[in-house]
Amino acid sequence: xxxxxxxxxxxxxxxxxxxxxxxxxxxxxxxxxxxxxxxxxxxxxxxxxxxxxxxxxxxxxxxxxxxxxxxxxxxxxxxxxxxxxxxxxxxxxxxxxxxxxxxxxxxxxxxxxxxxxxxxxxxxxxxxxxxxxxxxxxxxxxxxxxxxxxxxxxxxxxxxxxxxxxxxxxxxxxxxxxxxxxxxxxxxxxxxxxxxxxxxxxxxxxxxxxxxxxxxxxxxxxxxxxxxxxxxxxxxxxxxxxxxxxxxxxxxxxxxxxxxxxxxxxxxxxxxxxxxxxxxxxxxxxxxxxxxxxxxxxxxxxxxxxxxxxxxxxxxxxxxxxxxxxxxxxxxxxxxxxxxxxxxxx
Length: 346
Ligand code: DAH
Known about the structure:
By secondary structure, the protein is α+β, with helices and mostly antiparallel strands. The protein folds into two domains: 2-90; 109-341, 2-Layer Sandwich (BirA Bifunctional Protein, domain 2), CATH 3.30.930. The protein contains eleven helices and nine strands. It has helices spanning 2-18, 22-33, 38-44, 51-90, 109-123, 137-140, 173-181, 224-239, 292-297, 314-322, 335-338, and strands at 127-128, 134-136, 165-167, 188-197, 209-219, 245-252, 255-264, 281-290, 306-313. β6 (245-252) and β7 (255-264) form a beta hairpin. α1 (2-18) runs parallel beside α4 and α5 (109-123) crosses α10 (314-322). The protein starts with a helix and ends in an 8-residue tail after the last helix. The model has no long low-confidence stretch (mean pLDDT 91). Bound molecules: 3,4-dihydroxyphenylalanine. The site of 3,4-dihydroxyphenylalanine has 11 residues, from β8 and β9.
């Protein structure tokens, strides 16, 4: 019996040594230690032994049970450890790897220019106002001294929605809205940035949707020199301190006199280059003194008040500032284009 016990122990220890997973270990355990195991078979025969033998076999069987149990426990622990290590190995994170760059959006170049213009005029005490993009013919043209059939309407090919409603072709109707809303007919200074629409075919220099900033100042003793000083400051702020401006006579129905304003070329300093098409000057906006008819249409006494107004294209300013040659780039949302401006990526 002692020998059988010794044999059982050796076999059991060897089987335990050989198994590599928990299931097989459980099988080994029930084979040697379970109720129907060889071990319990021997134990059941204890009753037939003499006192002397029973003592001996008893202590041997205790020893065998202890060593098999210990081997089973150790093996179970090492299988669990192995499993855990494998899992950790699979989930391993290399914390020294550089992290993925999070791309932040950038401000659109037209937004940058619009906000720059807004900041400048706010610093001079102007209000920033807005008006609807769907406008009445009355505000967009009629009240601005542009009656139906006026040839100047042809220059502003419009998207009409009904006979009386259209997408505004310029931001100038906000002049009318602001003056009408000014119930006390008090002096004021404002700019209105916003989207405008014309029935142009889209190409490198045209877009059916574009944006303008309208400026309007109404008060007593407002003169052309106020307009000149204001626009000179604007040109210097947008294109550099050394810039000069010049006024060329022009025509707009809502201003009298009317001018187109050129800024001295910031690339060649008036020598002539590809940007200014050899002239040394670049046209940037239209302006003038508010036509008395427009003031009167809006309830302002033109013998007491004068005003100046101007309208500038935001795409035009942005293209000059940043050297953008294809207008479509502003509207196609290509990140390779957009990320060139306002870089604040981290
Ligand atoms: N509204 C004109 C346009 O879109 C621009 C303009 C010219 C606005 C002269 C003005 C102005 O306020 O005085 O072409």
